[in-house]
Specification:
The structure holds 2 protein chains of 2 kinds. Chain A has helices at 2-29, 32-56, 61-84, 86-93, 96-101, 106-136, 145-167, 175-183, 186-191, 203-209, 213-226, 234-265. By secondary structure, chain A is mostly helical. Chain B has helices at residues 2-23, 28-58, 61-94, 98-104, 108-139, 147-177, 182-196, 208-216, 218-230, 237-268. Classes of the chains: A mainly alpha, B mainly alpha.
Chain lengths: 274, 277
């Protein structure tokens, strides 16, 4: 019985997750020009923010905020456009039907997309960070790496869980999906304080912003690397990030089932060009 | 006369189509709300960057005005870039309608000008007005147009508009000859605009080995033409002349690249090839 369950878990969860992640990594990394261009192009945007700070006469550590914020933004954009929106892409390209009629777990597909996206983005972000640090001479305290890295990884787990949560909405929608993705871009970039410390928000906005994992993760990383005073105590931020992950995955799972049911009833599950 | 009327009708139809593609997924109120959210939050990012800098002793309200007017103008550049790159891609790959558009439209270049016009003008102008209103009323942005600067603005807008429309021909042309690189192109060109147009900071701040690029790209001249009158500064004749030359250059370049890339796509049989969807 136990063996059969394990076998079923491997067949319907582990293998689909691996397959989805494998396609994502190989598909996006097989052309080196793509990897290099996707790593270097974001530096143009980062450079513009850096020069804006220089124009404003900001202290040198703010340049570091921009570089670290830019790295985090790459992950967030991956979550929004390649994780949350992915089921929309699958629907529009006609892949959703085979995925949904297969015995594979929906959550396994999402997990595969998340892990694959994480691997791809990590490769690109590492290159972006190296270029950014080298070009702008960002100084940070490397002794904090052992603490900052696990916190950043924890933040990413939460972020990809947010992506899983939103992905279910895309089962229902067509062009609205584009706009929803856009809605998840600038407002989240602002609220998570990617390019400036969120402690400059009024208190009520700090509370709202703290519900976003990226705000807490960025705040913690800024505090560790650049000695920024931060929003809350580091321990409290870590606890919040740890608690968020299972809650978000649970909501994602419930939402996925609910939206699949709703979109089937409304006949929109496989409806293209809405 | 009949030809001119046919072209005007075609332009009107393509503007209508562009608007429908952009907006008919919801009602006008929801669409307007969505349209406003991005630029408002984008502006707030720059405001808080200013506040964070000001808290460390770098307060200078004139710089806040500079970046807020810049962030309001940036929407035209970003929206124009996005819409013009994505239009051909959507028609060919996603909706698979490009062969019908090619057959039905008396002039494909005119079609793409019209298709991009409605979303870019509506989104960007509404954003510009809201950004300036919020900036002036809440953050003390100083916008003091004088009668002469309003005249200058009236001269600048058509010059920049012609340049923009021609620029969108170039990006549409790129869409005819590539598919998989379109997303990277959007990000790359947006980054170039952001960095070299002087929209958020004066290009003189760039290191000398990069500053010359800002003199080569047309965006920096167009930004200057629009920003100066809004801030009550009379643009010089040389800056108007530079903007005009940049726009005319774009007209020429746009016409050549559009003709060449359309012809190449037809010759290679890739005009309606779908590989992305």
């Amino acid at each position: 019985m136990k063996r059969a369950l394990m076998s079923s878990f491997i067949t319907t969860f582990v293998r689909p997750a691996f397959a989805r992640g494998y396609i994502r990594v190989v598909g996006a990394s097989r052309i080196m020009v793509d990897v290099i261009s996707e790593s270097t192009l974001p530096v143009l945007n980062l450079a513009a923010y850096v020069f804006t700070y220089r124009f404003l006469g900001a202290p040198a550590e703010y340049i570091g905020f921009v570089i670290v914020g830019g790295a985090a933004l790459s992950f967030w954009m991956n979550v929004v456009w390649n994780m949350a929106s992915q089921l929309y892409w699958e629907k529009e390209s006609g892949n959703l039907e085979p995925i949904f009629i297969s015995p594979a777990s929906r959550m396994a597909i999402l997990l595969g997309m998340a892990v694959g996206g994480f691997v791809n983005t990590t490769i690109r972000v590492t290159l972006t960070l190296v270029i950014g640090v080298a070009v702008f001479g960002v100084g940070f305290d490397p002794s904090g790496m052992s603490v900052a890295l696990p916190i950043f990884l924890l933040t990413l787990v939460d972020l990809y869980s947010v992506g899983m949560m939103f992905s279910s909405l895309y089962l229902m929608y067509g062009r609205e999906a584009w706009h929803l993705s856009a809605l998840l871009s600038e407002p989240f970039m602002f609220l998570s304080g990617l390019y400036f410390p969120a402690r400059f928000f009024p208190f009520w906005l700090q509370l709202i912003a703290s519900a976003i994992p990226l705000t807490l993760g960025m705040d913690a990383v800024r505090r560790i690397f650049f000695n920024d005073p931060g929003l809350w105590e580091l321990g409290a931020e870590v606890v919040a990030l740890v608690v968020m992950a299972p809650v978000l995955v649970f909501i994602a799972r419930r939402l996925l089932a609910k939206m699949e049911d709703l979109s089937k009833r409304e006949g929109r599950l496989t409806l293209r060009w809405q | 006369m009949a030809v001119a009327r046919r072209l005007v009708d075609a332009l009107r139809a393509s503007v209508w189509l562009g608007w429908q593609i952009s907006a008919n997924w919801t009602d006008l109120l929801v669409f307007s709300t969505y349209t406003l959210i991005r630029p408002i939050f984008s502006m707030l990012i720059f405001i808080f960057m200013y506040l964070a800098s000001a808290a460390t002793g770098g307060a200078d309200p004139s710089k806040l005005s500079y970046i807020l007017v810049g962030s309001a103008l940036l929407n035209y550049f970003v929206n124009s870039n996005w819409e013009s790159f994505i239009a051909v891609h959507e028609d060919r790959e996603h909706y698979q309608t490009i062969r019908y558009l090619y057959l039905a439209s008396p002039n494909l270049a005119l079609f793409y000008i019209g298709r991009n016009l409605a979303p870019v003008m509506f989104n960007s102008t509404v954003s510009l007005l809201v950004n300036l209103t919020v900036g002036v009323s809440l953050f003390g942005v100083r916008i003091s147009p004088t009668p002469s600067s309003i005249v200058a603005l009236a001269i600048s807008v058509p010059i920049v508009a012609v340049g923009f429309l021609s620029y969108s021909m170039i990006t549409a042309s790129i869409g005819f000859v590539t598919s998989r690189y379109i997303w990277g192109m959007i990000e790359g060109v947006s980054g170039l605009i952001f960095l070299f147009s002087g929209v958020m900071f004066p290009p003189e701040l760039l290191p000398p080995e990069l500053a010359w690029v800002a003199k080569l790209v047309p965006w920096s001249y167009w930004v200057e033409l629009l920003r100066s009158p809004l801030m009550g500064i009379q643009p010089t004749m040389s800056s108007i002349g530079a903007g005009l030359v940049a726009s005319l250059g774009m007209v020429l370049l746009g016409a050549i690249t559009f003709r060449w890339s359309l012809s190449k796509a037809k010759r290679d049989g890739t005009l309606d090839t779908t590989i992305n969807w």
